[in-house]
Amino acid sequence: MKKRSRVKRLGVLAFVAVQAITLLSGCAPAGDDNTNNTSSNESTANKDGSVSEPLTQSSFLLNTVVTITLYDSTDQSIIDGALDVISKYEDIYSRTLENSELYKLNHGTLPKAPGSENSYIVSDELASLLTSGLYYSNISKGKFDITIAPVSSLWDFTSLTPLVPTKTDIENAVKKVGYENMVIEGNTVTFKEEGMAIDLGAIAKGYIADRVKEYIIAQGVKSAMINLGGNVLCVGEKPSGQAFKVGIQKPFADRNEIVATMEINDLSVVSSGIYERYFMENDKLYHHILNPETGYSYENNLVSVSIISEKSVDGDGLSTSCFALGLEEGMDLINSLKGVHAIFITDDYEMHYSDGFFDAIKVTEVEP
After folding, report:
1. Which domain range does residue 17 map to?
2. How many domains does the chain have?
3. Any idea what the CATH number is for the domain that residue 235 is in?
4. How far apart are the first and last CA of the chain?
5. Could you state, in chain order, the average pLDDT of each consecutive group of 10 residues for the chain (368 residues)?
6. Longest pairwise C-alpha distance within the chain
């Protein structure tokens, strides 16, 4: 193995889980899935323009709990607008909502483009994210593939009684997967093979977080936190000038139990790993990061990958891509990119840091 910047061995449960990123000192707990909206509206403006308490609100969107926190504003309408932005893009990118644009594309009900039976006209927003998805499909050598929907639609990791799909169904679905058979030209999407479909679940939350950041900055906000179910995006720094502290929480533990904290300014933190959605069958663990070549969960000795980047869409795409590539190839990819840092957790409970991580980011590990 190539020499890494640093490797830290942890206790048996002290590793990062996918949705186990938490903001310390200033972000209210997200609440449970039965809560549609929860908010804390007690923030008051001081004479110098600072805010005594952050304004925060949570809502169940994108099939998860999302939380928006403003540190330098008492304007509730900004949070309302941010949640509207999330809803807008959910109605475009959802694979399962029947009225979403992606659903209509996958089911062939969008307007047809001239010249091909399998060519469709899509919006600028959908074309943009599909282009990003193809980029990560390319740099991951197809290990990350946005055309995996025929396979991913067979698996239901949120069911009360999840089951492994039949071998025949998986083999038939894998034949329909292949990003190289999808072409985007402007606002036209063409599928070269019958039965192809797209799943943007591994990249959409990051893209949406970036759009929310753009929106709240346009409203004059300079200090905020966007948390889309574990995709954390910091806007600026705290009004005091201090960095945000983003914690990596222990899996299966209380939200306040963490394995490490990072000091983050104006950056995104996104993780992908086997403990986000999984189930056991016949003593075997099946998780939601699926191999496009086999149709089954990846088995590559990784537990999770966390990406720190400027744009959340990059964190989303790279966390899944690097997990799929495995420790060696995934680390090589990260080390080839500027302004991107990563923590890989292997199944022997070691933390592997990308080159230059500690020069760029202050991290404090919590001993098990």
Report:
1. 6-77+222-365
2. 1
3. 3.10.520.10
4. 26
5. 42 33 39 39 50 90 95 97 98 96 97 90 98 97 97 94 97 98 97 96 96 98 95 96 84 63 95 86 94 96 92 96 97 97 88 94 84
6. 68
